[in-house]
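Q: Trace token order:
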Amino acid sequence: MECDVLVIGGGHAGCEAALAGVRMGAQVTLVSMADDNLGRMSCNPAVGGISKGHLVYEIEALGGAMPCITDRVAIQYRMLNRRKGSVVWGLRAQVDRMAYEREMTAFIKQTMGLEVVAGEVVDIELGGGGRKRAILDGGSSIDCRAIVLATGTFLNALMYRGDEVWEGGRVGEGASQQLVNFLSEQGFRIGRLKTGTPPRVKRDSLDYSRMKPQPGETGMLTFTFGKPVKEQIDCYLANTNEQVHEIIKGNLDRSPLYQGKIEGVGPRYCPSIEDKVVRFGDKSSHQIFVEPEGRESDLCYLNGISSSLPQDVQDRYLRKIPGFEEAEVTLYGYAVEYDFCDPRQLRSTLESMVVEGLYFAGQINGTSGYEEAGAQGLVAGANAASNALGGKRGELRIGREEGYTGVMIDDLVVKGTEEPYRMFTSRAEYRLGLSQYSARLRLTGKAYQMGLVDGGRMDEVRGLEERVSGEIRRLRETRIKGSDEEQLQGYSLEEVLRRPQYNYSDLRGVIQGINLSEDPLVQILVEEEVKYAGYRKRMERELDKLKEMERERIDGVDFYQVEGISTEGREKLKGVQPENLRQAAEIPGIRPSEIMALMIHMKHRRNA
């Protein structure tokens, strides 16, 4: 078999990578251990959330599939972080788990130019001229020019529950145990991480009268700006208690996490219930989000109590939770330990520095979450396709000031990670300019240049830009006369909207009968543009300085020959291999004086 781009792994990163490659005109083959569960949600049945919602909107702006599939199968929408400004709101959709997997699998298989192969890649052979050959477990092979590795939690994976240990990256599925040999031989630095999942219970075995309902919301609440689902299904909020905690504390000696069996580092911001009880001993309860797994499913996902304790212990503490006295468990929680590769060996295109034409995306880079995986997969797939097609499309690079996707990738390739990386709004220093609603305005132009979206989508974005700029211009030109609010006399509506106490809808009360835009997306974008105009001007000045540093490319510099850099600094620079001065300056432990020394060295080299 032959193709332009080979994608290894059929999770969220692999699906977006494969589809991005096809949209750019490449012939793509996707290899997955099973070809009937593409895009499977191994963890909670939800997409989006605080900062994660931003990533989903950015995937949508770049032409990806996750937002479209999510809106087809959503069963509930909620907007998180509403206490703060709209630029950091995060849309979260509860979805039908099986319907998502079914829709994504069908979408992938119906895509022209994309072939799906069921199997496991056990080795990769590197040939001349950039050619590569993937060897499958059955002995067959696939020749290609570029490869995207999106192995998820399956690389050398083990699962744990009590004293039970078995191979696999997900319940009922095996592990990729041989591909790690190729990575080690090529010199990739490999680490170990851990994740986990909670018990699943029968929906009709719970007493919801003892829980707090969490209904969905209405309004402009979809990732594709269409109409939200009409009938939303309630989620519920429950809590653990001291009885639950005592049972867990009394059985920590039976937890593989506390027996020392699990070496991998777990997610700091999504710990197991054992970790919560130990680390937060002063808390008398912890929240549990009871999430239905679908419209037709009879299961609930218990978000917040992932566990690797034995089945009998999980049974005992579950029945001490109010509303769970008669809970019927269909799948007990377990932990997964797996290998990942140090992302500091990647460029910002997600191409490896070790093997040309080999790209990495998703949990193999040390990240967690469907959204983080999908965004990486799209970038890796687009760049792999461009590489395989001769580089005529250029490279898809997203800066920190351009999107949360850019923040995540920059964090990974410059700083690396020692625990499962999760996106947060606090990681984005330019977040006030990165609203989830502005994703199309920020990124669709890049997508169009790469061939990821067509001219029709670009025309839609240009039309949106014109409506927003036209509305701002009208607000600027409309001055207040005869208003009941005397303190506003003579001011323009733009100046009024700039004040914190006013929002877009208040403008109708300032000038009676004014014809304002009825488009909710335009309203939000106008309000954000006006209110954060001053911040954006300051941000642009800062970015001008950073862009100067980004233009200072670091190519072929022997850091051991640069005077004024410490041995530790040289080792860190060599390990990361920054592409430019800005990336070098962001490496933890690199001092400003060492950046100055590097700048002087590069200047002398140019002059010479």
Remarks:
- The chain has a mean pLDDT of 92.
- Residues 200-335 form a domain with the Elongation Factor Tu (Ef-tu); domain 3 fold (CATH 2.40.30.260).
- The CA atoms of residues 188 and 341 lie 7 Å apart.
